[in-house]
Design a protein that fits this description.
This protein is an alpha+beta fold. It has a single domain (about 5-175, about 225-230), classed as Aminopeptidase (3-Layer(aba) Sandwich). It has six helices and nine strands, in the order E-H-E-E-H-E-H-E-H-H-E-H-E-E-E. Helix 1 (about 30-40) crosses helix 2 (about 75-80). The chain starts with a strand and ends in an 8-residue tail after the last strand. The structure holds coenzyme A (COA). Coenzyme A binds near residues 21, 97, 98, 103 and 105.
Length: about 240
């Protein structure tokens, strides 16, 4: 494996070349979707592409934000609405993803390391992340506030993605119970999920970390994430 991490400034032609890594409904948080192009247009040096040789295998997005030290419940939505503007203090990791064949090899630790270097290079004080816990999908009925406390016998966090962050020295700050919100009509949800939602009520949907609730024919999904904070190493003097 010849792993390289480059910025969007260096390789803008890579945008749009990765296969979709997400369940379709995840693309329909309106707050996030309307901000997304700005990540690449306004903050291109904060967006990363992961390559194995010349093969594109993953990506990561970060955003410099003004943060007062309070982890907001609406994690990702907060980051893209209230985060930008003013003199940034902190780097906020928005997302990281690898194509399936490249998962489980520790590559994400390298990507997170590169993100914290990015923060240091821009003089930011720490890196925060509304982390999407990988295995919460298996426990959609468990409140996120309970799930974040789950640990294995070796005391490490139960969730593998939260665990990776913790191993790198990140501190678990708080749950972000309403990190993203996706709302759609019954027809839209049926198209996004290939399921049927014949009546109002709560449904467990593959890929969703909490149930989708239908009321009056409108389905709402509120995605829970977990705020974590990575320390930043001071840049080495020349
Ligand atoms: C989340 C993600 C970036 C993690 O990257 P990664 O390089 O696979 O992470 P790691 O190799 O450090 O694995 C982390 C842990 O998950 C486990 N794991 C991850 N992917 C796995 C897989 N496909 N099969 C088995 N275990 C896996 C690893 O064993 C490890 O656990 P450990 O503490 O027991 O070693 C990657 O799984 C991914 O792209 N997932 C889909 C997108 C996503 O959910 N992103 C996160 C939200 S922003």
């Amino acid at each position: 494996m010849r792993l390289r991490i480059v910025t969007h400034v260096e390789h803008p032609e890579l945008r749009g070349k990765l296969p979709d890594l997400w369940p379709e409904f995840m693309h329909h948080d309106e707050v996030v979707s309307s901000f997304w192009p700005q990540l690449y247009e306004v903050y291109p040096d904060f967006q990363l592409w992961v390559l194995d040789g010349r093969r594109l295998v993953g990506y990561a997005c970060t955003l410099p934000v003004v943060w007062d030290g309070v982890p907001q419940p609406n994690g990702v939505d907060w980051a893209v609405t209230e985060g930008p503007g003013g003199m940034p203090t902190t780097l906020c990791a928005i997302v990281a993803g690898l194509v399936p064949q490249y998962r489980g090899h520790g590559i994400s630790a390298v990507v997170l390391g590169r993100m914290t270097k990015l923060a240091a290079a821009h003089g930011l004080d720490s890196m925060i992340a509304p982390v999407r816990p990988l295995w919460k999908e298996r426990y959609p009925l468990t409140p996120i506030e309970r799930y974040v406390d789950w640990r294995r016998e070796d005391e490490l966090l139960y969730d593998p993605w939260l665990r990776t962050h913790e191993r790198l020295g990140a501190e678990l700050l708080a749950a972000a119970p309403s990190s993203m919100t996706v709302t759609g009509t019954r027809e839209q949800w049926e198209e996004w999920t290939s399921l049927q939602f014949p009546e109002d009520g709560e449904y467990v949907v593959p890929g969703a970390l909490a149930p989708v609730r239908f009321e009056g024919g409108t389905g709402t999904y509120v995605e829970p994430n977990v705020w974590m904070r990575h320390p930043i190493e001071e840049p080495q003097p020349f």
